[in-house]
C-alpha cells in the first residue's frame, strides 16, 4: 500500500437530507450519488471565474469535498452562506483529516476513483490524521501524473478568481454539467460553450527551466503562463490563436516543447469569434 500525502488539500464533509441538492445546485459538475466515484467541480463567481475547485464523492451517507488550502476559508464561508435553511451539516475536517493519492483503492479509508472525462488519476483517499503517518510525505508522484495528463489545479497552476472553467478544460473533462439548471456563473459557462469563445486552453510544456508563473511566448507575443513545474514539465493555459508554429515557443528566451493533452478536442492556431 502506497499513499502519497497531498498536504495542500483541505477536506469538507457535507451531510444531511439536502446535502446532495445543495452541492449540485451551486457547483459546475454533476455531483455523483453512487459511492466510489469522485467527480470534478468548480465554484464560480458571477463573472464565471473559478473561486474554488476540486473533487466530490459520496461515502457513508455524506459527500466528501476537497479543495486547495489557499481557498478553503472562502469556500467554507460561501457554502455556509448558500446553505441558508437547508438541512445540511458542513464539517470542516482540515484539522482532523488528510487527502492522499493512491494507484489502487485503499480499504478502510474514504476512497474514490479520480476520473475526469477519459482520464484516470488513481484514487483520492481521505483518512484521519493519525492514520497517515505511514504515507509518503510528499505528492511529487501525483503532480507528475496529473501534469503528464494536462490536468490543472487551482493554487498550483492558477489563482482564484482569474480563470474560466473552459480555460482548464472542464467542459471536456466532465467538470461541467451542461444539463443542469442555473448556478452562479452558469450564464458565462453556457455562453462560452454555445458561442465557442474559449480562447485559452491547457497545453503541455516540456524542457522548462523557469518557475511557475513564467510567460510563454509564441510568435513574439505572450501566449500565457505556466503552472507548477515538476522535473522540467508543466501545464500552461495558453491562447491557441497565438500558437501558429508550435516548434517556435519560448520561455525566458529559451525554447520549450509544447503538446496538446491526449484528451484535447482543440488545436493549435484555432481562432474564436469575438465574445
From TrEMBL:
Entry keyword set: Transit peptide
Domain CAF17 C-terminal: 199-265
Keyword Transit peptide: yes
Protein name per the record: CAF17 C-terminal domain-containing protein
Coiled coil: none
NCBIfam families, alphabetized: ygfZ_signature (TIGR03317)
One GO term (biological process): iron-sulfur cluster assembly
Amino acid at each position: 500500500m502506497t499513499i502519497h500525502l497531498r498536504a495542500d488539500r483541505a477536506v469538507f464533509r457535507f451531510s444531511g437530507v439536502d446535502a446532495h441538492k445543495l452541492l449540485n445546485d451551486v457547483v459546475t459538475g454533476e455531483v455523483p450519488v453512487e459511492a466510489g466515484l469522485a467527480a470534478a467541480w468548480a465554484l464560480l463567481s458571477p463573472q464565471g471565474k473559478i473561486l474554488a475547485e476540486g473533487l466530490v464523492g459520496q461515502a457513508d451517507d455524506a459527500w466528501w469535498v476537497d479543495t486547495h488550502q489557499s481557498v478553503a476559508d472562502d469556500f467554507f464561508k460561501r457554502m455556509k452562506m448558500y446553505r441558508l435553511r437547508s438541512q445540511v451539516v458542513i464539517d470542516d475536517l482540515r484539522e482532523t483529516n488528510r487527502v492522499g493519492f493512491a494507484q489502487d483503492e485503499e480499504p478502510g479509508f474514504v476512497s474514490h476513483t479520480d476520473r475526469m472525462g477519459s482520464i484516470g488519476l488513481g484514487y483520492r483517499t481521505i483518512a484521519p490524521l493519525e492514520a497517515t503517518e505511514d504515507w509518503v510525505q510528499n505528492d511529487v508522484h501525483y503532480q507528475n501524473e496529473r501534469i503528464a495528463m494536462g490536468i490543472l489545479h487551482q493554487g498550483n497552476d492558477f489563482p482564484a478568481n482569474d480563470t474560466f472553467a473552459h480555460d482548464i478544460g472542464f467542459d471536456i473533462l466532465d467538470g461541467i454539467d451542461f444539463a443542469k439548471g442555473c448556478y452562479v456563473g452558469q450564464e458565462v459557462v453556457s455562453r462560452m460553450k454555445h458561442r465557442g469563445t474559449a480562447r485559452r486552453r491547457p497545453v503541455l510544456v516540456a524542457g522548462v527551466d523557469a518557475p511557475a508563473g513564467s510567460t510563454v511566448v509564441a510568435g513574439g507575443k505572450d501566449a500565457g503562463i505556466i503552472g507548477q513545474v515538476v522535473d522540467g514539465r508543466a501545464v500552461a493555459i495558453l491562447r491557441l490563436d497565438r500558437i501558429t508554429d508550435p516548434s517556435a515557443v519560448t520561455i525566458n528566451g529559451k525554447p520549450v516543447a509544447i503538446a496538446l493533452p491526449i484528451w484535447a478536442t482543440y488545436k493549435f492556431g484555432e481562432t474564436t469569434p469575438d465574445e
